[in-house]
Amino acid sequence: MNLDELREEIETIDREIVEHIAQRTYVAETIANVKRDQGLPTTDESQEQRVMDRAGENAQRFDVDDNLVKAMFRLLIELNKVEQRESR
Ligand SMILES: C=C(O[C@@H]1C=C(C(=O)O)C=C[C@H]1O)C(=O)O
């Protein structure tokens, strides 16, 4: 593959990443509504820990830096929590 083709491949992957972030955000919004209806708090630290542990395991499985992957997941979680708080 030449440089342009490789960059096209990156472009497709980047779009898919954003699509997955949007899907994750949508599901988290749905979870927020369920929690609100059940009178549960926005933040669930034990669930966050499970998400972070899984992120580290998946990073190792795919041989990428687990600190980097965990930092990205920390950002995704914080993003959801800010949105959940704002919609309450
Ligand atoms: C989405 C949830 O709400 C919050 C956001 C989380 C996330 O983005 O993974 C995890 C736990 C909660 O603090 C949830 O409880 O599952």
From TrEMBL:
GO terms for biological process: chorismate metabolic process; salicylic acid biosynthetic process. It holds the Pfam family CM_2. Residues 1-88 form the Chorismate mutase domain. InterPro entries: Chorismate_II_sf, Chorismate_mutase-related, CM_dom_sf, CM_II_prokaryot. GO terms for molecular function: chorismate mutase activity. Keywords: Isomerase. PANTHER family: CHORISMATE MUTASE. This is Chorismate mutase. It comes from Halococcus hamelinensis 100A6. The lineage of its organism: Archaea, Methanobacteriati, Methanobacteriota, Stenosarchaea group, Halobacteria.
